[in-house]
C-alpha cells in the first residue's frame, strides 16, 4: 500500500511538472511571437577636444573619469602672449581712431589762424625785398653795386615769392579740409585695426577649453607644460547624451519594426530593470551581421541595421557594451 501511494505521488508530480513545462513553453513561444529579441552594442558619442590656437598648456582642471558639466573649463593655455597681442591691437585702434577723427573734422581754427599769420608774414617780407630790388635796379645802372650783388637781391626776392606761395597753399588746404579719398582711407584703416583687435580677443578667448556638453573625461592626451599646436587633440570626452544601440534584423522582420516604436534595452548588470528606448531609424541598405553581435541563425544572413535611441541613459551604459533589445512586434498593418 505504501509503495502504491509513493507511485501515485510520483505520478502526480511528474504530471504537474509536464503540464507546468508545457505552460511555460507555451508562454515563452507566445512571448517570442509578441516580442522581437535583438542583440547589439551600445554606442556613445565621443568628442576630441582641442584649442583653436596653439600655446603652452598651463592648467588641466579634471582627471580621467571625472564628470564634467556643459560650460565648465577643462583646460587653459598660457594667456600672456595673447593678452600682449590684445593690448597692442587696442593701441593701434586708438591711433587709427585719432587719425580718422582728424581727417573727418578737418583742421582746428587755431591752425587756420596760424597759417593766415604766416601768409601775412611772408607777404610783408616780400614787400621789403621788392623795394630793395627797385633800389638795386637804379644802383646797378649807376654802377654803385656789382652784378653779383644785384643777382643776390633778385634771388632773395624770388625765394620770398615762393615762400609766400607755399604759405598760401597751406592755408587753402587747411580751410578746405581733407579730401574724401583721404577720409575714406582713414576710415578703412580704423576698420582694419578694429578687426585685428577683435581677432586677437577671439584668440585670447580660445585659450580656454570649455566643455561642449555633459560628459565624462575619457583621456587626457596632453599634460601641463606641453606645447600644443592649433587643433591638436588635448582630451577626449564621452558625452552623456545621445546614447544609442545598434541592432540588426533579418529581412523577414522588416515589416515588424518601424521608426518611433518603443524598445526595452536589457543589460547583464540589470536584466530585470531595462532601459527604455525608441527606434530611431532603420537602414535602407542590407549588410552582413557584425561579428560582435552574430548569432548562429544570422551568421550567414544579410541583415538591416536598426538604431535604437536610449531615452534614459545613465552611467550604467558604456561604449561597446553588449545588450539585448526587445521590441514588440507591430500587429496593426502599416498604411
Describe this structure as you would to a colleague:
With 335 residues, the chain is α+β, with helices and mostly antiparallel strands. Among the domains are: 47-79 and 204-237, Beta Barrel (OB fold (Dihydrolipoamide Acetyltransferase, E2P)); 85-202. Helices cover 44% and strands 28% of the residues. It contains five helices and twelve strands. Strands 1-8-11-10-9-12 form a six-stranded antiparallel beta barrel. A four-stranded antiparallel beta sheet has the order 5-4-2-7, with no helix packed on it. Strand 9 (262-266) and strand 10 (275-288) form a beta hairpin. Helix 2 runs antiparallel to helix 5 and helix 3 (109-141) runs antiparallel to helix 4. The longest helix has 33 residues, at 2-34. It is rod-shaped, with a radius of gyration of 46 Å. The two termini are 68 Å apart.
Keywords:
335 residues; alpha+beta; OB fold (Dihydrolipoamide Acetyltransferase, E2P); four-stranded antiparallel sheet; 44% helix; rod-shaped
Amino acid at each position: 500500500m505504501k509503495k502504491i501511494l509513493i507511485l501515485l505521488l510520483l505520478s502526480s508530480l511528474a504530471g504537474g511538472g509536464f503540464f507546468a513545462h508545457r505552460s511555460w513553453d507555451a508562454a515563452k513561444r507566445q512571448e517570442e511571437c509578441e516580442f522581437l529579441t535583438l542583440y547589439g552594442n551600445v554606442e556613445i558619442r565621443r568628442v576630441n577636444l582641442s584649442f583653436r590656437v596653439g600655446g603652452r598648456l598651463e592648467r588641466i582642471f579634471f582627471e580621467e573619469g571625472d564628470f564634467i558639466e556643459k560650460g565648465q573649463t577643462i583646460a587653459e593655455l598660457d594667456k600672456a602672449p595673447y593678452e600682449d597681442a590684445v593690448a597692442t591691437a587696442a593701441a593701434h585702434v586708438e591711433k587709427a581712431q585719432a587719425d580718422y577723427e582728424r581727417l573727418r573734422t578737418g583742421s582746428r581754427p587755431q591752425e587756420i589762424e596760424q597759417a593766415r599769420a604766416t601768409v601775412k608774414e611772408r607777404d610783408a617780407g616780400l614787400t621789403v625785398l621788392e623795394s630793395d630790388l627797385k633800389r638795386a635796379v637804379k644802383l646797378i645802372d649807376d654802377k654803385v653795386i656789382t652784378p653779383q650783388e644785384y643777382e643776390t637781391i633778385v634771388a632773395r626776392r624770388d625765394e620770398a615769392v615762393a615762400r609766400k606761395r607755399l604759405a598760401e597753399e597751406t592755408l587753402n588746404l587747411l580751410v578746405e579740409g581733407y579730401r574724401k579719398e583721404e577720409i575714406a582711407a582713414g576710415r578703412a584703416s580704423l576698420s582694419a585695426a578694429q578687426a585685428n583687435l577683435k581677432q586677437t580677443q577671439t584668440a585670447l578667448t580660445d585659450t580656454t577649453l570649455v566643455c561642449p556638453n555633459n560628459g565624462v573625461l575619457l583621456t587626457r592626451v596632453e599634460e601641463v607644460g606641453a606645447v600644443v599646436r592649433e587643433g591638436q587633440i588635448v582630451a577626449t570626452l564621452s558625452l552623456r547624451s545621445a546614447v544609442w544601440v545598434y541592432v540588426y534584423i533579418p529581412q523577414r522582420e522588416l515589416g515588424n519594426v518601424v521608426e518611433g516604436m518603443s524598445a526595452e534595452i536589457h543589460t547583464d548588470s540589470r536584466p530585470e530593470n531595462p532601459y527604455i528606448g525608441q527606434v530611431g531609424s532603420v537602414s535602407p541598405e542590407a549588410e552582413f551581421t557584425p561579428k560582435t553581435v552574430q548569432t548562429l541563425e544570422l551568421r550567414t544572413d544579410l541583415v538591416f541595421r536598426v538604431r535604437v535611441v536610449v531615452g534614459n541613459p545613465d552611467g550604467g551604459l558604456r561604449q561597446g557594451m553588449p545588450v539585448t533589445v526587445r521590441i514588440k512586434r507591430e500587429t496593426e498593418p502599416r498604411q
